[in-house]
Amino acid sequence: MEKLLDLTISSAGRIVISCLGIYILVIAFTRIFGKRSFSKMSSFDFAMTVAVGSLIATTVLSSTVSLAEGALGLLAIYFFQLTAAFFRRYKNFRDAIDNTPLLLMQQDQILQENLRKARVTEGDLRAKLREANVTDYSAIQAVVFETTGDITVLHSKDMNENLKSWLLTDVAV
User: Fold this and answer.
1) Is 39 left (phi over 0), alpha (psi -120 to 50) or beta?
2) Do residue 139 and residue 74 come from a single domain?
């Protein structure tokens, strides 16, 4: 309760100004560096999102970090993300920073070893199948544990419809 009363007009003003400044910078940098800045296409993109959030919170709430320091840190994060996106064109770099998608189910067969590798339980898998409105295992064509940690369920009500192989090109079996 005592900490609640420590808020002064001066510190409240600093927080509001820092918040507005960093908010404007995030919008500006996202417009300059592109929408990819907040995508979840790779684990590196996710790390970027977390880093930006942490930097925003620190800049807004910490009296030891100035708006200029927060702006520089934010610019550096965006620059490193843009640089990594550029170098991801090269397989060696991409392999070094990206996870590989992993097949968890192939048609109605659960791949137990891959569940173990991904640290996903059958309960987690069933939850994702329910979320994807799967009502019958025979409708499942593939379930993929994506590089971002998301689980994608590819299914079809038409049992004669075949999954296009290019969708699983980079997925580890």
Assistant:
1) beta
2) no
